Amino acid sequence: MRVHIGCDHAGLELKSHLINRLTELGYEPVDHGPFVYDALDDYPVFCIRAAEGVARDREKGLDSLGVVIGGSGNGEQMAANKVTGIRCALAWSEETAKLARDHNNAQVVAVGGRMHSLEDMTKFVEIFLAEPFSEDERHVRRIDQLHAYDADGVRPPLPDSAKGLGPAEDQD
What we know:
The chain is α/β, with parallel strands linked by helices. Helix content is about 45%, strand content about 15%. Helix 1 (about 10-25) links the parallel strand 1 (about 1-5) and strand 2 (about 30). The chain starts with a strand and ends with a helix.
């Protein structure tokens, strides 16, 4: 499996470590940078490229996932999620890393280089990469609703249980 990786200066140490570790595990890491430490670099430059690499590979039918890394992982997640067709989840525990794939079929995971130990972040990434999507109907349905909204901007309809109970209906 190909793994596209991008970060900013706060994720540079983890990125280098991950490239070595993923290679040992038989993955094919693709480094989208940065390649040198620059305290003023901007995460969108590298994280968008990593997410685009995943999207391109998947369009070609290739098995590909991605990892974006920053100080908190928040901005990096937001950047990756700007790429059409990409779902990027922020992992802050082993469980969130697993659920990102199992329930949400995320193709990219974001981790915070200043939030956890190197060992913990490595474990989050390994779990994310190894976990398959469950294909459970309720998860597929929810992901399909996101795709539809991206395509046409039309919100999913309210379920009967929510009608007449709050401001959500007022916007339909």
